[in-house]
């Protein structure tokens, strides 16, 4: 059994792809106000939430447990409404050598499709793939969509 993998989910949402991309590209700090699953976010290092060298600290509920990690932006592709994040440290660092989160907003005639992908490498076979994180993204996306479509 491989320690590396990739899991993805596509979620149909009501808000436009542009609204979703704008939130994650320019207002990431607002996510904590749009979903109950994020308890706290703070700028850990750097002066700007959206600079590639900045590091943010997140406190969330994953699999019913309060979980902490740090995050930095790896790349932003505005043309394709795609952002790649590197998550590390805290609870993620205890389980995964690599944890890359990829957000993509895809236009539809009405609303959009939000695609979340997680590329990971577990530290050992005793660590489960990050399905709980995918459930967190699915539920959180529904909560966020309720605010964005308004």
Automatic annotation (TrEMBL):
Pfam families associated with the record: Bet_v_1
Domain Bet v I/Major latex protein stretches: 2-150
GO biological process: defense response
Gene3D superfamilies hit by this protein: 3.30.530.20
Family: Belongs to the MLP family.
PANTHER family to which the protein is assigned, alphabetical: POLYKETIDE CYCLASE/DEHYDRASE AND LIPID TRANSPORT SUPERFAMILY PROTEIN, POLYKETIDE CYCLASE_DEHYDRASE AND LIPID TRANSPORT SUPERFAMILY PROTEIN
Name under which the protein is recorded: Bet v I/Major latex protein domain-containing protein
Organism, scientific name: Vigna angularis var. angularis
Lineage: Eukaryota, Viridiplantae, Streptophyta, Embryophyta, Tracheophyta
């Amino acid at each position: 059994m491989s320690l590396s993998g990739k899991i993805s989910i596509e979620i149909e949402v009501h808000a436009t792809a542009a609204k979703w991309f704008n939130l994650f590209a320019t207002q990431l700090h607002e996510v904590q106000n749009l979903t109950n699953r994020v308890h706290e976010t703070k700028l850990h290092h750097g002066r700007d939430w959206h600079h590639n060298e900045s590091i943010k600290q997140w406190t969330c509920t994953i699999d019913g447990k309060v979980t902490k990690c740090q995050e930095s932006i790896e790349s932003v592709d505005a043309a394709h409404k795609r952002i790649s994040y590197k998550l590390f440290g805290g609870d993620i660092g205890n389980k995964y050598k690599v944890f890359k989160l990829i957000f993509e907003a895809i236009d539809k005639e009405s609303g959009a499709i939000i695609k979340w992908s997680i590329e990971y490498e577990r530290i050992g076979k005793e660590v489960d793939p990050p399905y709980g994180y995918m459930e967190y993204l699915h539920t959180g996306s529904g909560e966020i969509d309720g605010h964005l479509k308004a």
